[in-house]
Amino acid sequence: MIEAIHLAYRGAAIYRTTTASKALASLLSSAETETTELPSNSDRNLIEPLTAREIEVLQQMAFGKRNAEIAKALFVTEGTVKTHVHAILQKLGVEDRTQAVVMAIRQKIVK
Question: What contacts 24+ positions apart, CB below 8 Å, involve 62-70?
Answer without folding.
Answer: 62/24, 62/101, 62/104, 62/105, 62/110, 62/111, 63/17, 64/13, 64/15, 64/16, 64/17, 64/20, 64/21, 65/13, 65/17, 66/7, 66/11, 66/12, 66/13, 67/10, 67/11, 67/12, 68/12
